[in-house]
Design goal:
heterotrimer, A mainly alpha (326), B alpha/beta (415), C mainly alpha (299), A: 326 residues, MetI-like fold, two-stranded antiparallel sheet, 15 helices, B: 415 residues, alpha/beta, D-Maltodextrin-Binding Protein, domain 2, 2 domains, four-stranded mixed sheet, globular
């Protein structure tokens, strides 16, 4: 805003309203207009508070209690102070899992964003027939339930004569006949990564492509006619407009991939999940809920929340700052 | 402005308060419920829907005005759902539990004590030992055995005929059959007996066959017993047998791939698993498939098989336990059990046992330690990890069993 | 160029097509890209193809460890078997209702909140943003039991509305977050030009912004649709009767048994259940592909 004097109360009220509004003294209609944003966020806030208010309270409460199956049935826990947190933080399994999950998240997010953006750019370049086919294919990928996708992955990596073993042997990469892809943690989690990235690409592609459609065609053409190479066009024209979308997608991907549970759990299989291949999602489920140690599970949930907040703070800050720069 | 912020925060706080302090909307307790809820696994829906229907009909006839709502559950999440109802209310009146799932919930006080009614359930005096043990805790009865299943060997009669072999009577005989089968079939990936490396149900049978156990209970504490000499001898025998008989993954599990799929593709001459495996051996080998009981290391004695199965329990939160018990009574009556037997299951009492391979295999069986935390050992894949290390040679039997045993002792004794 | 006379964005995709004369070089590039596109399509969509082709295979070809790429004896048996399983149509109907209402309501509410975040400055704004992000960081496993407890208190267990509210709670935060991003991405000039038109009331404000953010709304709604459609664990926990359950719960019965799994049926069922998603996508995808001309001022 262009005001240069110390803002008065009335001016503040007016500032809270859309830019076009001329400053007015504090009137009922002024208050009403200034309260508009609050009315706008109220439905969302209300719904979320009504449903998640109690669960949040429960999580925090339980993290300070010993709460197993007996306590669940009796509806009453035993207060143990910080013992849950202390036990988790002193457990080397927690730290190993955390490190493994951070690496896992970086790999997943990186691959998802890069491949997704490349495909979105590809969509711009192809003819409309191929574009419709490709987007339909992507939506089909997106729509496939994880359970079914896991089955296809298991079939492809089958020990006896899965396609992957067959092709690798035929290409003379080595003798992969009867190779067990789930014998080592690296192998298991790499396969999980391919599954997750594959399932996450469609969302990135669709969102980035939607963002690309906001890029004014004239600017692109102007730049191209001025002789700019495709990379420069992308960097100078497209990227700035897409920046908020990239930030959002990256921050969302970090949040989701850090806590992902369904894919590793189904692909590795409950029989093979062990401390050596935990990621935070499976770790939380196993140690907190599968073993009926709900207090510990609540403590781990809160720790996970803090961890992922830490991981994404850079992006979130950028997003919030973005608003102020404007 | 401050006022608006305060107002909106107050609104949020109010909403949270409402959701946490909302009065419970429980329906008023009735002297007799007008409906009972029964949770059965989806196996019943596809396997014996007629039994469920006839039980409901008989129940509704005996209790006019009361209907039965059977809700089918799936194995992977029925316990999660049960936990939610234990916390929030709305527990079922009857619930089917896997026999290894019972102990933890019995110890936590989830189920009603049925000791006084034991006599009223059909054939309760001759219930299968393995199932009855799974439904008992601290000497009290908390469940009614439903049905059982054991493990048998499903084999290719044509391949066995070619080497002139009959059903082996001892482990040594079986090993020599396996060697001959391998000699006849040169394919590297062929398994005379397809066993997944970490199939602990099968591996532990060797431990029990040699007189060992997984854990013992003495002086108020559990002690992991896999490091005893007898248990180690059993595991050594398992390793020897695996090396001769199986080309499956040493770290693999018994459901990926399904052994019957390997069998159907000609990748195995015999497979070990539940008796219902014979359903899915494929068109090609359907007519040359038969089953025998897994032999133990002493000639003429079968190897103790893991007795799987389910029990039926009445949760403590049920609004009408008398009706629940009555439903169970009808469902597990002698005619009910005979129906289950006809569908290939093992009925819940020894006096009902027939002579099928499945039932003969159940004569000598073993069961997991009835410890409150046993499920945690299972879920933590302690045994699987141990077997993987032994079979791949990463650890000696001595070391692997010591580690596992310590782990089991620790887990079972946790409060 | 015509940059100063044309203010509204024209769709990006057909920029090449608008040139009257196509040079041969451009054609070759286009063809090369098309081939790449097809390759990507084949690689990505292969698992989907496998699912659909398995649905038509007879049982022995399915369980075969030797792949059958294309069955020579396709059968519709799995499809008829799936449709005749108990509660198929009811559960699909329930899913449609739940997801339809969830998406519609969530888009509306999220759009309003996103406008508040992107176009206004108010106290507590940062707090609200942090809340929207923070909620998504909550691991869902921990929420299952307390959510059941609180919904039971509201009497919403075993009801479609209970599930709708639950899904909205999970869909709203990222929808708000994503739509805010799209709103911020709209070039300022467009907004100012639109407002010069004289409409300074909130309603007209929304009417101008809405079309400009349509591609973002569509992308977000597709995400909301698919996430809700494939959601399983909360539907399983909250819904008891077969007549109230959703399609994903119906699907879980194929793999939930301790006996052997009917893979053909599972694949057929999954294929059938994916159809509404495709239909929804085809209905809304025009907004993304062709950008938007409504409300824009053309040169």
């Amino acid at each position: 805003m262009t005001s240069s004097h110390v803002p008065s109360g009335a001016a503040l009220a007016a500032e809270a309203a859309p830019r076009l509004r001329r400053r007015r003294p504090l009137t009922w209609s002024g208050i009403f207009r200034a309260s508009v944003p609050y009315w706008l966020i109220l439905p969302v806030l209300g719904t979320v508070a009504a449903i998640l208010g109690y669960p949040l309270y429960w999580l925090v409460k339980l993290s300070f209690q010993r709460y197993g199956l007996e306590e669940l049935i009796a509806h009453k826990g035993v207060g143990v102070g910080w013992a849950n947190f202390s036990s988790v933080l002193h457990d080397p399994v927690f730290w190993h899992t955390l490190l493994r999950t951070v690496v896992f998240t970086i790999a997943n997010v990186g691959l998802t964003m890069v491949i997704g953006t490349l495909i979105a750019l590809l969509l711009v370049q192809v003819s409309s027939v191929i574009r419709v086919l490709l987007t339909t294919g992507l939506v089909l990928v997106w729509a496939m339930p994880p359970v079914v996708a896991v089955q296809v992955w298991l079939w492809m990596t089958n020990y006896e004569n899965g396609v992957l073993n067959y092709i690798l042997t035929k290409l003379h990469v080595g003798d992969y006949m009867q190779h067990d892809w789930y014998a080592s943690t690296f192998s298991m989690l790499s396969l999980t990564t391919t599954l997750i990235v594959w399932g996450a690409i469609p969302f990135v592609v669709v969102t980035v492509y939607a963002g690309l459609s906001q890029v004014p065609g004239e600017l692109v053409e102007a730049a191209e006619i001025d002789g700019a190479r495709p990379w420069r066009v992308f960097k100078d024209v497209t990227l700035p407009i897409l920046k908020p979308i990239f930030l959002i997608l990256t921050s969302l991907s970090i949040i989701w991939d850090f806590g992902v549970f369904t894919q590793p759990f189904l692909l590795i299989g409950q029989s093979r999940i062990a401390t050596s291949n935990y990621v935070m999602g499976t770790y939380l489920y196993e140690e907190g809920y599968f073993f009926h140690d709900f207090g510990r599970g609540a403590a781990i949930s809160i720790l996970m929340l803090l961890m992922v907040a830490l991981l994404s703070v850079v992006y979130v800050r950028k997003m919030v700052q973005f608003d102020e720069v404007r | 402005m401050k006022a608006r912020l305060v107002a909106s925060l107050a609104l949020v706080a109010a909403l949270v308060a409402v959701s946490t302090a909302a009065a419970r909307t429980d329906s008023p307790a009735h002297a007799t419920a007008s409906k009972i809820t029964v949770w059965l696994q989806v196996d019943a829906q596809s396997g014996w829907p007629d039994l469920v229907a006839s039980t409901n009909a008989a129940f509704e006839k005996a209790h006019p005005g009361v209907s039965v709502d059977v809700q089918y559950q799936t194995w992977p999440d029925h316990l999660g759902k049960f936990d939610a109802t234990l916390a929030g209310g709305n527990v079922p009146d009857v619930i089917e539990m896997g026999n290894t799932e019972m102990t933890k919930y019995m110890a936590a006080g989830a189920f009603a004590n049925l000791s006084a009614d034991k006599g009223s359930f059909a054939n309760s005096r001759s219930w299968l030992q393995g199932l009855a043990a799974s439904a008992t805790f601290n000497g009290k009865l908390y469940g009614v055995p439903y049905y059982a299943g054991s493990r048998v060997v499903t084999y290719r009669t044509d391949l066995y005929k070619k080497i002139k072999a009959k059903a082996p009577k001892s482990l040594a005989q079986f090993s020599s059959i396996a060697k001959k089968l391998r000699a006849r079939n040169g394919k590297k990936s062929f398994s005379p007996v397809y066993i997944a490396g970490t199939d602990w149900y099968f591996a532990m049978s060797f431990v029990y066959d040699y007189g060992g156990r997984i854990a013992t209970f003495s002086r108020g504490k559990w002690h992991g017993a896999l490091d005893s000499p007898k248990a180690r001898a059993g595991l050594a025998a398992y390793k020897r047998f695996f090396d001769v008989a199986s080309r499956a993954s040493r770290t693999g599990t018994e459901d990926r791939p399904q052994p019957y799929d390997v069998f159907a593709q000609g990748g195995a001459a015999s497979i070990v698993g539940p008796a219902w495996f014979s359903c899915c051996v494929g068109k090609k080998y359907k007519n040359v498939t038969n089953q025998f009981v897994m032999p133990g290391h002493k000639a003429g004695q079968s190897m103790p098989g893991f007795l799987g199965g389910s029990d039926l329990a009445v949760p403590n939160g049920s609004k009408d336990k008398a009706l629940a018990k009555d439903w169970i009574r009808i469902f597990t009556s002698t005619s009910g059990e005979k129906t289950l037997q006809a569908k290939g299951n093992i009925p819940n009492a020894t006096n009902l046992l027939g002579n099928s391979v499945n039932e003969r295999a159940a004569k000598r069986s073993w069961f997991v330690p009835t410890a409150k935390n046993w499920v945690n050992v299972e879920n933590g894949n302690v045994l699987r990890t141990m077997l993987a290390r032994i079979l791949t040679g990463k650890s000696s039997i001595k070391d692997a069993t010591s580690t596992a045993s310590d782990n089991i002792t620790l887990t079972l004794n946790r409060p | 160029m015509s940059a100063q006379t044309q203010i509204a964005p024209a769709p990006v995709a057909p920029t090449v097509g608008r040139r009257p004369r196509r040079t041969r070089r451009r054609r070759l590039t286009r063809t090369a890209w098309n081939l790449v596109g097809i390759l990507v399509l084949v690689l990505l969509a292969f698992p989907v193809f496998w699912m659909v082709s398995t649905a038509f295979k007879p049982d022995d070809q399915i369980n075969s460890l030797n792949p059958t790429w294309f069955s020579l004896h396709p059968t519709l048996g799995h499809f008829t078997d799936a449709i005749h399983r108990p509660f198929f149509w009811v559960d699909v109907k329930n899913s449609l209702i739940i997801v339809g209402v969830t998406v519609a309501l969530s888009m509306a509410l999220a759009f309003l909140a996103a406008v508040a975040l992107a176009k206004f400055r108010f106290t507590g704004q940062k707090l609200f943003i942090v809340l929207m992000i923070g909620i998504q960081m909550l691991p869902q496993a921990g929420l299952i039991i307390p959510l059941f407890v609180v919904l039971r208190r509201y009497g919403q267990v075993n009801t479609l509305t209970g599930v709708i509210f639950t899904y909205m709670t999970f869909v709203l935060p990222f929808s708000v977050w994503t739509l805010r991003g799209f709103l911020l991405g709209i070039p300022r000039e467009l907004e100012e030009a639109a407002m010069v038109d004289g409409s300074s009331r909130l309603g007209a404000f929304v009417k101008i912004l809405l079309p400009l953010v349509a591609p973002g709304l569509v992308a977000t709604s597709i995400f909301a649709f698919i996430t809700s459609w494939n959601e399983y664990i909360f539907a399983r926990i909250l819904l008891n009767d077969g007549s109230k359950q959703t399609a994903t719960v119906w699907l879980s019965y194929f793999t939930g048994t301790s006996r052997h799994t009917d893979w053909g049926g599972l694949m057929a069922g999954s294929t059938l259940i994916a159809i509404p998603v495709i239909v929804f996508f085809l209905l809304v995808q025009r907004k993304i592909a062709f950008g938007l001309t409504a409300g824009a001022v053309k040169a």
